[in-house]
Structures are given as C-alpha cells and as structure tokens.
Amino acid sequence: MYSLKVFVIAAIIIGATARSVPKERLGSYVLVEEDGDMLVYALAEDSEATTEEVHPQRVRRQAHGSLSSNPDGSSNFAAKIPIARGDSNVLSAIGSVNGANGKGGFGSAGGGLAWDNIKGHGATLTASRIPGVADQLTAAGKANLFHNDHHDITANAFATRTFPDKPNFPTFDTYGGKVGYTFNDKIGASLGAAHTDLFKKTDYSAMGNLNLFKDRTSSLDLNAGWSKSVSPYLPSSRWEPSGGLSFTRFF
To answer: What is the per-residue pLDDT across 187-225, written as a single tens digit (0 to 9) for each?
Structure first.
C-alpha cells in the first residue's frame, strides 16, 4: 500500500504565449486558444432566453510538468507533452520519476500515453518500475459528470496489474475509483476506494480540500481527510487522519 502526500510543487510550463486569440465554434462548444492552452466554453441553451450561458474548461495544448520536494530530500518530477491534437481531443506522452535522490536512485519511474477531451473526459495507460520490488501496468480513466460556472463532478477509475520481482510471488491486481466534487474551483471533496484481491484488502478514503489563495502564478491549498484499510490480515481497522498544505508555483 502506497500513500500519497502533497508537498511543495513547482509547475514548469514550457511553450510560447499565443499572440492571437482565435475562436472556433464546435457544435455546442466554443474553443478559445489563450497562452498555448485551449479554453473550452460549453454552451447551455435556454429556449426562453436570448443569451447563452458559458462554462469554461481548459485542455492543455502545450508541454508542461511539475517538480516537487519530499521531506527526506528526494524529488518528484512529472511531464506531459502533446503529440497529436484535434478540435476536441489531445493525445500526450507522459512520464514521471518519484523519490529521486540526486545520485541516480529513485523510488519509482514510469511513462505512457494520456488522452484528454474538451468535455473533461480523459484516460491514461502507463507502465512503471519500482526498483527491487515490481513492475506495474495501469489503465485509468475519468469522466466529467457535471460542470457549470460553480459546480463540477468528476468520476475516476483505475486498474493496476503488479508484476513482483520475486519469481515465487504471484502477479496481482488492484482496482478502484473516486468521485470528486468542486465548488467554484475553491472547495472540494472526494470519496474513493481501492481493492486488492490477493490480500483481501480494501482501502477507503474521504478527503476535502480548500483553496486559500490562487492567481495566475501560484496556488495555496489545504488538504485534509481520513482513510482506512480493511483486511482479515490486518489486526485492526480504523480511520486515520491525513492532510497538509500544498503550494504550487507556475512559471
């Protein structure tokens, strides 16, 4: 079981700033390219009104990445580079290195492909390596269930197959999902679960987040919640608190 904690993150944005802002009408969406990104406005038509309500979403159209620091002094890096683009979809190459110690060692590393759709849907297929432990293959997807100016609901699901290095240890699968809600891009909450058949183990999580500050160059967020694991092989099962502050710098 691996736990994910959020620490200071510096996001690296690579690409030129667009000098023009072309607009394109695509069905019930308007596409506006701005600063190398594609802003997507979903048009909600009202038969009794003469105006249209627009709900923006953003699809990355340029290479970008993130760099974070861990308490033990190691670092995490992730990158995403678009390789094919259409009016409503972007296919990107993705890669990550976690727990790099600066001496050639790392906790895990992987890469794969990611697909993003202007309606907020997406999918990834990645392969990763945990040195001395196992190889992993993961398929994940997300679906935007609802979005307007104030509310957003997105569902995520994943399935991971783990191939342990030890020849006498069997291959095993972990699968799970999460549903998240966000209000005004400021307050959010999520419920998630993951199950591993081999260990008869199910992990549950209930998390919340609050954006304390955000502008074009940085963001400060508070994350908090509870998680627990249930298995006949565990002596006890109880909800454990987790959380912390995350600071993101964009440049």
So the answer is: 999 999 999 999 999 999 999 999 999 887 777 888 899
What pLDDT, on a 0 to 100 scale, did the predictor assign at position 66? 75
Q: What is the pTM of this model?
A: 0.72
Confidence of residue 69 (pLDDT cuts 50, 70, 90): low
Q: Label each residue of the chain as H, E or C.
A: CCCCCCCCEEEEECCCCCCCCCEEEECCEEEEEECCEEEEEEEECCCCCCCCEEEEEEEECCCEEEEEECCCCCEEEEEEEEEEECCCEEEEEEEEEEEECCCCCCCEEEEEEEEEECCCCEEEEEEEEECCCEEEEEEEEEEEEEECCCEEEEEEEEEEEEEECCCCCCCEEEEEEEEEEEECCCEEEEEEEEEECCCCEEEEEEEEEEEEEECCCEEEEEEEEEEEEECCCCCCCCCEEEEEEEEEEEC
